[in-house]
Amino acid sequence: MENVHLAVEDEDLYSGYNDFNSTFFTEELENDIGFQQALRTSQGRRPLMTAKLPGTAIGGRPLASSFGSRVPLASSAGRPVTGAVQEGAARPMTSIRAAGYTSTMMRGSTLDTLGQHRGPAPPLEGKNEDAPEEKIKIMEKKVNDLIEESCMAYSSGTSQLALEKAKEARRKEQALVRQREQSGTADHINLDLTYSVLLNLANQYEHNEMYPEALNTYQVIVKNKMFNNPGRLKVNMGNIYFQQKNYPKAIKFYRMALDQISNAHKEMRIKIMQNIGVVFLRMGQYSDAITSFEHIMRESPNITTGYNLVLCNYATGDREGMKKAFQMLISVPLGIDDEDKYIPATDDSSTNMVIDAIKNDKLYQMERDKKAQAEKYIMTAAKLIAPAIETSFASGFDWCVDMVKASQYVELANDLEINKAITYLRQKDFNQAVETLKTFEKKDSRVKSVAATNLSFIYFLEKDYDQADRYADLAMNANRYNPAALVNKGNTVFVKQDYEKAAEFFKEALKNDSSCTEGLYNLGLTYKRLNRLEDALDCFLKLNAILRNSDQVMCQIADLYEQLGDLQQAIEWLMQVISVTPTDPHILAKLGKLHNDEGEKSQALHYYSESFRYFPSNINVITWLGAYYLDTQFCENAIQYFERATLIQPTQVKWQLMVASCYRRSGNYQKALETYQNIHRKFPDNVECLRFLVRLSTDMGLKEVQDYATKLKKAEKTKEIQEQRVKSGRESSSRGRRGSREGSAGVSTPVLTSPMKSSITDSSNSSRGERRSGKNISLPASNEPYESSSPKELDAYYVDPLGPPTERPKTGAKRVVEEDFADEDIGDDLLPE
Q1: Which helix (H) or strand (E) holds 63?
Q2: Residues 476, 485: contact at Cβ < 8 Å?
């Protein structure tokens, strides 16, 4: 309490608050005489404080004398100068010294904080490359560079160069280890570098399919306990055994890797489990594979595993398992945002620019590919299990459609319905297919267009061109940019012989989809009908660039070159066709004809003989070969060909007469006589046979001569009467036609020729060499079509919701005749005559 001061009532509580020290009163300094006098003296002429020469606020700064000594100045108050030092005394270290300031600066000197006036810096100490440590560092850098070069070479596709770089890196790394051992620094071996070298070398061995070397290199890494986590590399070893189809060892190494990876690495363990399931699937152990895939679908479901699970249950025939697996498949989350975010919702230009920028970026493309793959797996799984999960495939499809409608893939339900109709087509149940497709007429435009395209195709195959035209129009109205609908519309116009209009539809289809091969093929055929051969050739050459090694396209090109008169080019293109289909008898026969036209008889004989070997029933080929051997006086060789013609056309007497003629020319008169006698028994009124019988009997002195002569006279008389009757009939019919033309103005109706029955060759040459006689055998006519066994003039096709097959460009459609009706009767309607 003694320190407590109590206020007295008389004491003023606020006394002293207005008192202040006059030293701090600066407003009257200008009127202070003493202060102004001090400023005029030397005390007031001290150097001004600058940033270069900092000093204390109160103390004076020593001035340098002529002898370099400093004399501290006394302050105006008489206190010692702060920071002043005696000569020779070291100034204490302060933070200012470190910034480059010094108190020993000479008069007239300036502060050089950057050292610009100190002269050149001393040269750096040179590296001694002969030192062991320097050699080791250089070698390590070379090894790292080689590893990087090896990886870059593999990424560019040069696996052999990558392997060479990896081997060189291994050699240099071993030299580096020896260098460290020699220098006594073996304890400082870079294990990370050794691990990188060995791992890269093993990978390059594996990429070059040198599996034993890769396994040995992986073993070196795995057995070295100094490396971290070498057990993971057993996954790579399991992959190699899988490539070698050594499935038991692959499972062994996968399980070893699974045991050495902790549960913290969940994704890695799931991938290894998936590999194990795939190996079991390859081994046919479907139950074990189902166990692995079901575990994955519970822990971390994905589309690929779900699809594999469906396949395994299908292989075991478990209906409930297939249904359960399909439900798990369609419930897998894709983790893809709704596409509505890419639709501009406001008029903000900056926002729309951002949306346009991300609409086609790599992330969006990845999402789109992921979604397309999921839809492909779901559609394939549904088509696979639909006939197996119920008593009929229609009930199975209905169940799959119901499940898909209740999932996130609602839009696939319509595609499944269309696949149901396509399945009806494969089973030749056209009525059910038509009924199924007609249910889509009131659906949205995309599905309606697809269904109408398929309906148009069906009616086109049934030759109901009016209905085909109607549904083609419906498909075009639903989606004007559907190339399949435009091609079908062009086909219906083509059969009506309105080629100009058909060409317009085919051109529009190509504008909408430049890879529509059907439209380009049909456009070329249309130009051929219009006799625009150069334009047709241009179309087929473009198509050949798209569809490499297509025998149909190359046949069309060869035919066009033949019509243009360039036989050498035609032969070259047909040789390309032979390289693709070496056993096609029609192509071989056409090559023989072209070589014969060029005067190359030996080449023509070769190709005609090859054609006969593969197809010994072609009358034109048989005729040419028989005529060739007759012309070259090898009658014995010609006999076999004419005997073959006799078997093919037994009612044609000319082939039997040619056989007898060959025997007669070769000097075998007895055999010739027997042949003529057989012919006479089959054809007793044949005048030519009787003439040769009379001649041979006379030459051989047979007693049947008179009998044959009597029959010959009778046959000649009968033939003469028949010829007169035919002649009189022709004259009367010609007079009747003249009278009808004079009495009426009738118009002849042209005969429509279906494009399905058109020949690939020029129709103007179709009548050459048709009629032949036994006495005068000429070379075969040029009207024989030489396309391959299944060329088609027009391709009507349906749309597959899963997309086109891999062997043709993506047009959203595929040719049914080739893919879905192979080797069936319906495909014959698309063959030319």
Answers
A1: strand 63-64
A2: yes
